[in-house]
Amino acid sequence: QRARMRTPISPAHMDWASHYPAFVDPDPSKINLGGTRKLIKDVEVVDIGCGFGGLLVGLAPLLPDTLMVGMEIRVSVLDYVRSRVSALRLKQQVLKKTAAEKSTNQTPSETPTVPEDEDDEVGSTTTIVPGNYENITGIRANTMKFLPNFFGHHQLSKIFVCFPDPHFKARKHKARIVSESLNAEYAYVLKPGGLMYTITDVEEYHHWGDEPTEGIRDLWELLSEEELDADPCVQVMKFETEESKKVTRNNGNKYVAVFRRKADPEWP
Ligand code: SAM
């Protein structure tokens, strides 16, 4: 079934249960406003414009207990992400079953077939990884219009914006995934202390944050080089998204900036 653009009227109406079956609350009476089962935890990490899902696949074993979602506007690309995640989950199930059978010295009832995956270079698919990729999913959405329909105030701990499509013409500035008006939305859904990760190969984009307006300065603080070096998510962002691999192949530059969302100012 192809991924349709289904926008919930509020975060409490979103059906997350079908995306993260391993995290559905065992109590069947716990139902959200949309009539679907609740999860035992909230989604906390979002990849905006996730493309083919390389970031999610790279982060999944690093943060196995954190629910992460990629949002993508192109239907065929999102279909690919969904199939990729399903194949990875299935592969993990087969590997676990085989390992369990081996450890109990049973003869496997049938030779397990491990689904082929395009992603073997990530090195995570032939071993059992923490989280079994049950913690990642993709949804089709226009993040520039509907982010607050999916996530509540202060819900997220990380937002990734990796290699957003550049739009240089002034009339298109409003259409940029990283823009001043969108910053208010990102700050709304991020927890205080939460991080917004950005990476681009377009230098002009990177310098966008150099002269922040007052509103932006109030909301965000830039992480230091030492903090970036200590964060394994930065390495995934630099080397495991499909676009980052393309930039590596072309010997391009990668500009990383990570912003910490400050605490809300005190009301006078
Ligand atoms: N982040 C991925 C990576 O690093 O490989 C993909 C980068 S690609 C250059 C930008 C992606 O953002 C495209 O897949 C595009 O379809 C998606 N995109 C653009 N505008 C979007 C929007 N408003 N909402 C969701 N996705 C969007």
From TrEMBL:
Question: Where on the tree of life does the source sit, at the highest rank?
Answer: Eukaryota
Q: Which GO terms describe its molecular function?
A: tRNA (guanine(46)-N7)-methyltransferase activity; tRNA binding
Q: Name one Pfam family in it.
A: Methyltransf_4
Q: What is its EC number?
A: 2.1.1.33
Q: Which UniProt keywords apply?
A: Methyltransferase, Nucleus, RNA-binding, S-adenosyl-L-methionine, Transferase, tRNA processing, tRNA-binding
- Please list where the region (Disordered) is annotated: 97-127
Which annotated residues bind S-adenosyl-L-methionine? 49, 72-73, 142-143, 162, 241-243
Gene Ontology CC terms, in alphabetical order = nucleus; tRNA methyltransferase complex
Q: In which pathway does it act?
A: tRNA modification; N(7)-methylguanine-tRNA biosynthesis
**Catalytic residues as annotated in Swiss-Prot or TrEMBL:** 165
**Compartmental location:** Nucleus
Q: Which EC class does it fall in?
A: transferase
Instruction: Kindly state which reaction or reactions the protein catalyses.
Output: guanosine(46) in tRNA + S-adenosyl-L-methionine = N(7)-methylguanosine(46) in tRNA + S-adenosyl-L-homocysteine
Subunit field text? Forms a complex with TRM82.
What is stated as this protein's family in its record?
A: Belongs to the class I-like SAM-binding methyltransferase superfamily. TrmB family.
Q: What does this protein do?
A: Catalyzes the formation of N(7)-methylguanine at position 46 (m7G46) in tRNA.
* Name of the protein described by the UniProt record: tRNA (guanine-N(7)-)-methyltransferase
Organism this protein belongs to: Penicillium daleae
- Gene, per the UniProt record: TRM8
